[in-house]
C-alpha cells in the first residue's frame, strides 16, 4: 500500500485509546512498515514502541513491543525474516457430514457417535449384544 504510513498515522495518534487487538495489529503493521521503508517510518516506529512499552496497560502489547524493539535493535535482518515471513493461509476443514447426520450427531454429543462421526445405530448393532438386547436383558 503506497500510503500505508498516512493510514497508520490515524491509529498511531489514538494508540492508547484503541482496543488491545487494534494496538497489537497497529504495532505489527508499524514494524512491518519500518522494515519495508526504514527511512520514512523511523519516527513512527519509535513513537509506537515508546508508547506501547511505557503507556500500555496490557502485558501482551507491552511484551510484543519489547520483543520487536530488541529484535530491531540487535538484528534487523532477523527481524525482517521473522516479521515479514510468509505465513500459509488459515483454512477451515470442509465438513463431509451431511446436515441430517450432523443434526443426529448433535443429539448424541456425549457419546462415541460424536467421536466416530457416525450415528450410534451404525456401530452398536442390533444382534444378541446390541443396544436393544441389553435394554431388554436389564428390564428382566
Automatic annotation (TrEMBL):
<dbReference type="Pfam" id="PF01602">
    <property type="entry name" value="Adaptin_N"/>
</dbReference>
<dbReference type="InterPro" id="IPR016024">
    <property type="entry name" value="ARM-type_fold"/>
</dbReference>
<keyword id="KW-0813">Transport</keyword>
<comment type="similarity">
    <text>Belongs to the adaptor complexes large subunit family.</text>
</comment>
<dbReference type="InterPro" id="IPR026739">
    <property type="entry name" value="AP_beta"/>
</dbReference>
<protein>
    <recommendedName>
        <fullName>Clathrin/coatomer adaptor adaptin-like N-terminal domain-containing protein</fullName>
    </recommendedName>
</protein>
<keyword id="KW-0653">Protein transport</keyword>
<feature type="domain" description="Clathrin/coatomer adaptor adaptin-like N-terminal">
    <location>
        <begin position="3"/>
        <end position="75"/>
    </location>
</feature>
<dbReference type="InterPro" id="IPR002553">
    <property type="entry name" value="Clathrin/coatomer_adapt-like_N"/>
</dbReference>
<dbReference type="InterPro" id="IPR011989">
    <property type="entry name" value="ARM-like"/>
</dbReference>
<dbReference type="GO" id="GO:0012505">
    <property type="term" value="C:endomembrane system"/>
</dbReference>
<dbReference type="GO" id="GO:0016192">
    <property type="term" value="P:vesicle-mediated transport"/>
</dbReference>
<dbReference type="GO" id="GO:0030117">
    <property type="term" value="C:membrane coat"/>
</dbReference>
<dbReference type="GO" id="GO:0006886">
    <property type="term" value="P:intracellular protein transport"/>
</dbReference>
<keyword id="KW-0472">Membrane</keyword>
Amino acid at each position: 500500500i503506497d500510503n500505508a504510513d498516512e493510514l497508520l498515522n490515524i491509529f498511531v495518534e489514538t494508540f492508547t485509546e484503541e482496543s488491545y487487538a487494534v494496538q497489537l495489529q497497529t504495532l505489527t503493521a508499524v514494524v512491518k512498515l519500518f522494515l519495508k521503508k526504514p527511512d520514512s517510518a523511523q519516527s513512527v516506529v519509535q513513537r509506537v514502541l515508546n508508547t506501547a512499552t511505557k503507556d500500555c496497560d496490557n502485558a501482551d502489547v507491552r511484551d510484543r513491543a519489547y520483543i520487536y524493539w530488541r529484535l530491531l535493535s540487535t538484528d534487523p535482518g532477523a527481524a525482517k525474516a521473522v516479521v515479514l515471513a510468509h505465513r500459509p493461509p488459515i483454512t477451515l476443514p470442509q465438513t463431509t457430514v451431511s446436515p441430517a447426520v450432523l443434526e443426529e450427531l448433535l443429539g448424541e454429543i456425549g457419546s462415541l457417535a460424536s467421536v466416530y462421526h457416525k450415528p450410534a445405530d451404525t456401530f452398536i448393532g442390533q444382534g444378541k449384544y446390541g443396544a436393544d438386547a441389553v435394554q431388554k436383558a436389564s428390564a428382566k
